[in-house]
Amino acid sequence: MTSPSDAPDDTPATADADGGAPACVLCFNASDPTGASGLGADIATVAAMGAHALPVCTGVIVRDTAEVFDSQALDADLVVEQARSVLEDVTPSTWKLGFLGSADVVSAVAEVVSDYPDVPVVAHLPNLSWMGDDEQMAYLDAFRELILPGTFVLSGNHKTLTDFLLPDWDAERQPSARELAVAAAEHGASYVFVTGVRLPDQFIDNVLASPEGAIAGERFERFEASFVGAGDTLSAALAAVLSSGTPLDAAVSEALSFLDQSLDAGFRPGMGGVVPDRFFWALPPGEAPEDGGAAELAADLGGDPSDGNHPPTPTRNVH
């Protein structure tokens, strides 16, 4: 599949090089009103990568670009009804699982996904610190027992995955991606895609690993900015690339390249974090910020959003 950054002129990438219909990615995720994470991020990312999203809503997240205030899961039967109705008509090429809302919904989604064992699952585990302790524990226990056994790639931030997979880790050094993969494999997951591994210099590492060791990955220079929705963007990009039949190592490289460029062109719509620009490639040549949007925004994080001194928004190509 052609990467958006490599697409000729202003033409978006397509999932099917032969000009056929795009591959479909069924996304289970919650609705985020900022569009930074959740279903909004999944839809934008999958579309930007040339595939077609089948969005199934699992709940509602109450948040702004700075923090999450609350969340409300949908009834598990309603989530299943959404999924079954579209699955009777369309067969997805990959699953993308984001925030599923509650332990009951986790169980319901696992049952649906288990009926399609040949469709690879990319499961993203976000930071769930806004949930109450009992609710979070029930969610994570269900995710561990019911989702991981059918997961092809488990993605998440290094700290989030460490707390989830190795809660008793007490060594002074941080666990490696391989050690996290070993722990995930004990519950049935084939690979882990670990992001945000802090390195001694001004870089972070992002590593795909199996229990045998690291397979692929890339270093990113650390931005002095807080991003919202990077995890959903990366995992949705990976699911979209995999939907075209791309080998896993190449798909990881392409998804990381997409995330890197999305973050570099990121924008700050409110008073909180920077939102990845998933349609960075739609900017006409010569109109992208010279130094990268994220770098400019990082320097502006302390500014007053009401003063009108934001970088101008370039006009976009409309396809």
Describe this structure in words.
There is one protein chain. The protein has 319 residues and is an alpha/beta fold. 33% of the residues lie in helices and 20% in strands. It is built from 9 helices and 9 strands. It has helices at 38-48, 76-87, 103-114, 133-147, 158-165, 177-185, 230-242, 248-264, 293-299; strands at 24-31, 52-63, 68-73, 94-97, 121-124, 153-157, 191-198, 203-210, 213-221. It has a 9-stranded mixed beta sheet with strand order 3-2-1-4-5-6-7-8-9, sandwiched between helices. A hairpin with a 2-residue loop joins strand 8 (203-210) and strand 9 (213-221). Helix 2 packs parallel to helix 3 and helix 5 (158-165) packs across helix 6. The two termini are 19 Å apart.
In short:
The protein has 319 residues and is of the alpha/beta class. Helices cover 33% and strands 20% of the residues.
- Give the quaternary arrangement of the chains: single chain
Low-confidence stretches: 1-18, 288-319
Largest β sheet strand count, sense and barrel closure: 9 strands, mixed
In which order are the strands of the major sheet placed?
Answer: 3-2-1-4-5-6-7-8-9
Helix content: 25-40%
User: Separation of termini?
Assistant: 19 Å
Radius of gyration: 19 Å
DSSP E strands, number: 9
Count of helix runs: 9
Summed over residues and divided by their number, the pLDDT gives a mean of 86
**From N to C, what is the helix and strand string?**
EHEEHEHEHEHHEEEHHH
Strand content: 15-25%
What's the overall geometry? Answer: globular
* Protein structure class: alpha/beta
